[in-house]
Amino acid sequence: MNMFDVEKIREQFPLLTQKVNGKNLVYLDNGATVQKPLRVIEKIKEIYTEYNSNIHRGVHYLSNKTTEAYENARETVRNFINANSTEEIIFTKGTTDAINLVAFSFGEKYIKKGDEILIAETEHHSNIVPWQMMCERKGAKIKVIPADNNGELILSEYKKLLNKRTKLVAVAQVANSLGIINPIEDIIYEARKTGAKTLIDGAQAVQHKSVDVQKLDCDFYAFSGHKTYAETGIGILYGKKELLNEMPPYQGGGDMIKSVSFEKTEYTDLPLKFEAGTSNYVGAISLGEAINFINSVGIEKIEKYETELLKYAEEKLSLINGLTIYGKSKNKTSAVSFLLKGIHFYDTGMILDKLGIAVRTGAHCAEPTMKNFGISGTVRASFAMYNTKEEIDKLYEGLLKVKNMLL
Amino acid sequence: MTTQEIQNEIIEEFSVFDDWMDKYEYLIEIGNTLELYDEKNKKPSNLIQGCQSRVWLDAEYKDGKIYFTADSDAIITKGIIALLIRIFSGKTPDEILQTDLFFLDKIGLKENLSPTRANGLVSMIKNIKAYATAFKAKYES
């Protein structure tokens, strides 16, 4: 595909053609999960009908074929985020699992009493709770990088928080509830100066913009398959090899050992050291296929198109009297969070659902962010490459109807 | 009227609506007419925290019957609360405990009672029954 042709892209997403409550579905909950293109659905079918077999274990034909597809997927992921080596690409259950892995294994190796972890005020709960659990275990402390009234992180405050006790800075590349792109380049640069390691939660980023972990120079990067057009239950942890080598395994089991006796077990090398048990190889292969799909469209083209969509949505929604957008920034991607004055987000979501429009309502697993704005939740419309301006028009009309019914 | 009769009455009222909009508009209307809830009763002990909408529920036992008052921050939830109060308020603990709720299904609003909605209504019904059990134990045993 040379030109970005949204109609051609939509043809590849069978789910989008259905009707909900008698209306054409308008799916604007892509921040939660995206729909899957045919080639990913067909790939999953192909695995189960042609070569399904457990990986890394068999000498037989099917097992070798599945293992090869699994490792090819790892190479596709490596290339997608430009990691130095496939040893740095760990398959996990998702972003949450990846963060928990680091919180456990990095924590065991490097965190001591009195150490500090920096996270941002606008984090998703999955980039808050694992660190709290780790801090409780190790006697360390969490410090929070504050956000301003628009939801943008205050870098000057961040710099003040960094000190010799800071061992890790864990920040989302894109805040899920607001769509704001955090200045992770500056955050990583400053952390590096004080010797702190960095983890970037890319769950809301990799599907929208090109990511180069070597250029970013972050120590860890995590993202989810299901938000990246692949199956659910698969995710990625990228980690620098020298760190991953030093960290103890997160879980024990098969596939992650060199030798086992009751006296001593020797762990195997990267990346399998962190992939105990039968991993979700179908998910992993589907992720490879999803990335091939993204590459065939072109991530730069996707970014350009989605930025245009977001701009259109913000302009259009701003025309509605009494509508407030939360998270105003020039640096945003693919999500707009808002409230209608005097109308509860739940009521808005319920009426929109009746009109066939799917949005997310509530605190978006980011209660501290909502607290910063003094609200308990918002309505969030989030976009993917297959959304159209006409769908945003339908959201606009839907919101006028909501106002009409509820005010 | 028994709780069963009231539910049938509600089903009858809703049967005149052909489409969802009229139905929800009616729900919003009855939500707006729900008896004012005393703000000082919006204390944490009366709060049922759903992650979508919040519900406050209070109960009083008088002459063998339980009287409920409730509120929500979302109007659609409030409309359903008004219906639930119409059914349960002023009934004896036994009657409340024996009531089988079927009207939401019949009027096509069952989705509002799905546990995944997290709007506080499922917990509210549980709490209504829990109040009945507690008052029965306290005053009638």
Task: State the end-to-end distance of chain A.
Answer: 46 Å
CATH class (first level) name of the largest domain in chain A? Alpha Beta
CATH architectural name of chain B: Alpha-Beta Complex
Strand residue percentage of chain B: 5-15%
Per DSSP, what share of the residues of chain A sits in E-state strands of 2 or more residues? Answer: 15-25%
Examine the coordinates and then state which fold CATH places here, giving the name of the CATH topology of chain B: Sufe protein. Chain: A
Structural Rg of chain A:
22 Å
Approximate shape of chain B: globular
End-to-end separation of chain B in angstroms reads 25 Å
Structural class of chain A: alpha/beta
Q: Look at the structure and name the CATH superfamily of the largest domain in chain A.
A: Type I PLP-dependent aspartate aminotransferase-like (Major domain)
Rg for CA atoms of chain B: 15 Å
Task: Tell me about the largest β-sheet of chain A.
Answer: 7 strands, mixed
Q: What quaternary form is this?
A: heterodimer
Counting structural domains of chain A, the number is: 2
Overall tally of domains of chain B: 1
Give the chain pair forming the largest contact, with residue counts: A-B, 17 and 16 residues
The number of E-state strands of chain B comes to 3
Main-sheet strand order of chain A equals: 4-10-9-8-7-5-6
Question: What is the number of strand segments of chain A?
Answer: 17
